[in-house]
Amino acid sequence: ALLADRQTTEFSKNKMISTFAFDPIKFRRQLEELKPKKGLLQISKGIDWKYDTFYNALISGNVGTGKSYTMFAIIGQLLQVTKYVDIIDPKRSDLASLKYVDELKGRVHSTASEINDAVIKYYQLMMKRAERMEELKASGHIGTYKDFGFEPCFLIFDEFGAFVEMNDRLAYDDPIKASYDTAMSNLNEIAMLGRELGFYILIGMQRPDAGSLPMAVRNQLNMRINMGVPTPEIEKMVFPDNEKQLRPLSSHLKGWGFIKIGDSQVRSFFAPEVPRDFNLHEYMRENITIRESQG
Hints:
- The protein is of the alpha/beta class.
- About 35% of the residues lie in helices and about 20% in strands.
């Protein structure tokens, strides 16, 4: 079992029973069968993202490793949990196409001005909630956003590194540059203050590095995923305390990688399997319909 990852742990009759994954693909979930709950999203059997505890996330991986599909699985589940999901795609790729889903109108952003405005607005909404919660706590009640009946909010920021690189080339007197600087400053504060207020971020990027991922944000990413085997430089950035050797899980299958949640060990996993006839827009609509049917 020392060569395998601990996948599940159960307690029964004063005994701790652990299941180890020698073959992670056996723990793979199907995309259509994912069943999120308030505060919990399913990643693989035995691996869940409890976002209220392990707030904020990073998903990295090169083209073709399954990063985008992993993000699709998470976004779909989030749309079952809350309607407050904002999606950013500066490369105007698959996620950007979601702006043509009527139910997501106004929540998908792809141009530089749209993205900066979306981050700034997200920050302003967070601070407005902070002010409201402070007023509610004046009576002596304490707690986080859930205790006061607020919904969780999520900012999905894909291709973050590309966005930083594009804006770093702007002239200092460019009006978009000033808006970008404000947005990045706001993003740092969201990462640091958002947990208690229920404002979370999920960042997607191909090659995270210190130049494109601010330390204030990086230090607050409590779920970290890298699809495929990371280079030594990326491994040091994503899994700085890892001591195990990360080996390929398959030479012909996609959608596998490594995940670290909180202070747990780095574990290998397969992301939810996507059906061959997958349609991104239909999938998101289906999850929104599930949420609306549950009231």
